[in-house]
Amino acid sequence: MPHPTIHLHDHTFKILFPYEEILAAIEKMAEKMNQDFETEKPVFLVVLKGAFMFAAELMKAVNRDCDIEFIRVKSYDGMDNSKGIDAGMHQKLNVKGRTVVILEDIVDSGNTLEYLFAELKKMEAKDIRIATLFLKPEAYKKDIPLDYVGLEIPNQFVVGFGLDYDERGRGFKDLYALMDE
Ligand code: IMP
Ligand code: MG
Fold first, then answer.
1. Torsions phi, psi of 157, nearest 5?
2. Which atom of ligand 1 lies at the shortest distance from residue 115's CA?
3. Residue 120 pLDDT more than 70?
4. How far is the C-alpha of 119 from the C-alpha of 150, rounded, in Å?
5. pLDDT at residue 90, as a whole number
6. DSSP letter, residue 147
7. Does any ligand 1 atom lie closer than 6 A to the CB of residue 128?
8. Active-site residue among 108, 127, 143, 147?
9. Ligand 2 mean position to 50 CA, how many Å?
């Protein structure tokens, strides 16, 4: 059973999605991928740190031949995402001519995605697809199509299932939303 509320640093968060619902959403995404990648071998690109738990769960349910790569991107400082993107693109990442599926924990403004998309284009990826576990539809204003979406959530700050508030809360298996104070 998830905790009704959790406390991280100076804030309280309340349960939004229990693990079972998150898992069901991931299994649906994997089903679609299993259909889409019957013949083609994609590169799954895990965006660290947040997507580690999503990626682990998804990869267990995707039963197609694939490559798995990791990159590190940081856009939030606490709850502030106004400072731009701090990214270390993997120098040895070779995606030329490949279909790449970006695995994101959450799409909020879409800034991170836009940045990654442009970088992968420069690296001459053949096709770039996006898989995000969570989406804040009210916040996302970009034109990049989202190919695989797990769960839509309200425009609130969330933690758990890989997502953090200042490096706290990543390990929770359920998703929690910031409570109004
Ligand atoms: P965007 O660039 O605004 O779309 O934000 C994307 C990144 O910011 C995600 O990959 C997350 O790592 C982080 N992020 C966005 N929203 C949240 C949130 O509600 N809680 C924790 N991290 C978030
Ligand atoms: Mg992220």
1. -80, 130
2. 2
3. yes
4. 24
5. 64
6. S
7. no
8. 108
9. 5
Q: How far apart are CA 86 and CA 94, in angstroms?
A: 21
What number of CA atoms fall less than 13 Å from residue 139's CA on the CB side?
17
Closest ligand 1 atom, residue 163 Cα: 21
Q: How remote is the CA of residue 37 from the centroid of ligand 2, in Å?
A: 24
pLDDT at 81: 77
Model's pTM, two decimal places? 0.94
Strand partners, 17: 175
- The reported pLDDT for the residue numbered 80 is 77
CB distance 174 to ligand 1 below 6 Å: no
Told to judge if 174 belongs to the known catalytic residues of this protein, a careful annotator would answer no
Query: With a 6 A CB cut-off, is 50 part of the ligand 1 pocket?
Result: yes
3-state helix, strand, coil in the chain (%, to 5): 20, 35, 40
Q: How many alpha carbons lie under 13 Å from residue 78 in its C-beta half-sphere?
A: 5
Torsion angle of the four alpha carbons 27, 93, 51, 179, in this order, in degrees rounded to the nearest 10: -140
Cβ 130 vs Cβ 102: under 8 Å: yes
Helices 19-36 + 52-61 axis angle, to 10: 60
